[in-house]
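To whoever is on call:

I kicked off a structure prediction for a single chain this morning and the downstream step that reads the tokens threw a length-mismatch warning. I double-checked the sequence; it's 170 residues and nothing unusual in it as far as I can see. Pasting both halves so you can look.
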Amino acid sequence: MHRFLIPLIPLIALFAASPTFAQTPEPAPMIELHARCIDDAQCRFLGDDVRVELELRNSGRNNVSLPVAFLRKRGPAVRLVDRHSGKEKQLRRNPVDGLMLKDLETLAPGQSVRFTWPITPKEITDFALRPIDLDAVFGLNITPERKGADATIIRAKLHIVDGRVGEGAR
């Protein structure tokens, strides 16, 4: 038995020193999230909805399949941060049918999809100090079938300021 053990030791050492392919992480998809205010490029709150255009862009070199209809209907996670107080508020999201996760749309390199998301006056005025000066942080889990640390979440931020003149801004 000792005859067979000796020749195996160099082979075991060779395999132990070589990299294992099972541990190589899968490259993350290069999906970016961009946000812009639609009605006012300076994102001034004028007492109406702040309508935001969210853009998912494939900035990588490979096609990426995403459940775009699911993401569009569910919407982003939106966290408002009052810049006066540092106070934060998480806005509610839409309920959505989990079967929509199976409906994938392929984004080619350089391709993007856009959708509109409103922030209502009530969501802003019930929360923010005056004059309005807040950040809206948008987050999308582009792997919604995964949760926690396994999820791939992309974010974009907008700065919203008070655009009302006179008494409404105070």
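Update from on-call: the warning came from a stale cache, not from the record. Cleared it. Sanity check on the structure: The radius of gyration is 24 Å.
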